[in-house]
Amino acid sequence: MEILWVLMAVVMIGAVLGPVLLRRRGGIRQVAPGAPDAADPANYGFLRQEELDIRMPGPDGDLLDVLDHVQRSQGWQAASQLLAGTETHGERRWQRVQAFAGAASLELRERPGGVSEGPGGQWLRVWRAEMPKDAGGAAVHAEFLVQQAWRTSTQGTDEFRIILEEAKDACGQAALLAPGDPVPYIIELSIARGLAYSREEFEQLWLKILDRAPAHMGAHLAALHYWCEKWHGSRDLAYSFAEAAAARAPRGSLLAALPLFAVYEHLPEVNLVRGFYQSEVVTKAVEGALFAVHAARADDPMLAHVRHLLVFFLVRCERWSEAMNQLVHVDGHVGALPWTLSADPAADYAVYRALAVAGYEANGGSPATLSH
Questions:
Q1: pTM reported for the whole predicted model
Q2: Sign of torsion over alpha carbons 330, 222, 159, 235
Q3: CB of 164 within 8 A of CB of 194?
Q4: Where are the strands (E) in the chain, listed by range?
Q5: Mind giving me the DSSP string for 89-131?
Q6: Contacts of range 70-76, beta carbons closer than 8 Å, 24 or more positions apart
Q7: How confident is the model at residue 354, as a pLDDT?
Q8: Residues 341, 155, 220, CA angle at the centre, nearest 5°?
Q9: Could you read off the pLDDT of 222-267 as tens digits, one per residue?
Q10: Residue 26 vs residues 19, 35, 49, 154: alpha-carbon distances, Å
Q11: Contacts of 19 (CB under 8 A, 6+ apart)
Q12: pLDDT digits (tens, 9 = 90+) for 7-39
């Protein structure tokens, strides 16, 4: 009986990985690293796996400089100044709030405190104590609590609910300090998912965000989770939400890529249909995302998020040249979906990158033919 189960597992793995690792057209085959026929991503100027930055989806030099300073000095002032100088309704403020909160959360996990040293993330506690009316500090604290709930406790437990209720109060305080800022309400979207807000409650929250930042891509991505099948909605509701946002997106907005994220959230755990990634629903979503990327501003902070997800889908779709064109723009940073869901984001990204390079070269591509 055990042999039968092993054979079944081999068949399942082959059905899933076979179409990716062995192609009838294009001649991709696996070889040992360093072999003469091995495709080498370094030939394209791509960074080695160990050099990839897993903290962010794309570059933000000001944020990284401040993060390094805060973590080195344990002083909060530079973080406060950076957020105060960041445009309120833009995507970048939301990303920076997440980054500061994530840094404090990871510090606390790595250094919970002891007799000889204080707990990690102490700078955030001092920030809140010394500047209780600082809107940036209030938002970072609220997001910190949300991340703590999802990282350190189990969904549905009393501990999980207590932390999220505290985070909800913190969002309210942050909103009072900056009435026009959408970020406190965007933070609450994760709370709504964890505390299972009713649809009426969620819609009321969503309207507050639309009043402040109707085309905010980060907010739409956070809201999409609520409508997904695995949370409080369904595949149809998630697709409807994404497609409606894409349809009303202003020119140059990355909201046209939202349906691709809806498709990703509802991928089958095991795909035994060879043509799934060539299906109409996937093709339409990929084309919408490519259109959004082409029309977006080069400095849009959410552009890297869309490009990373496109790499995933374009590789699965065997559209090697297009995948390589996205890799040229994002290589070096891998802090985005789908890689961040992996225990080793850099390794997961590197696998897809290697497949893209192999597929590109198997179909006649080379470093000389790749446009930068």
A1: 0.87
A2: negative
A3: yes
A4: none
A5: TSHHHHHHHHHHHHHHHHHHHH----SSSPPTTHHHHHHHHH-
A6: 70/100, 70/103, 70/123, 71/103, 71/107, 74/122, 74/123, 75/123, 76/123, 76/124, 76/126, 76/127, 76/130, 76/131, 76/137
A7: 95
A8: 55
A9: 999 999 999 999 999 999 999 999 999 998 999 999 999 999 999 9
A10: 12, 19, 25, 46
A11: 274
A12: 334 334 344 344 444 333 344 454 444 454 556
Residue 7 burial (C-beta neighbours within 10 Å; 0-12, 13-18, 19+) = exposed
CB neighbour list of residue 158: distance below 8 Å, 6 or more residues apart = none
Q: Name the token pair of 317.
A: 């779709």
pLDDT at 348: 96
Q: Does the CA dihedral 126-129-135-139 come out positive or negative?
A: positive
**Of 334, 328, 332, 329, nearest to 369 (Cα)?**
328
Sequence letter at residue 325: N
Of 52, 87, 81, which is closest to residue 345 (Cα–Cα)?
A: 52
Per the listing, tokens 């000889």 go with: 116
What are the tens digits of pLDDT across the range 169-208?
999 999 999 999 999 999 999 999 999 999 999 999 999 9
Which tokens is 291 given?
């259109």
CA distance 110 to 313: 34
How many other CB atoms sit within 10 Å of the CB of residue 225? 18
What distance in Å separates the CA atoms of residue 194 and residue 280, rounded to the nearest whole number?
33
What is the radius of gyration, based on Cα positions, of the chain? Answer: 22
Residue 41 has a pLDDT of 84
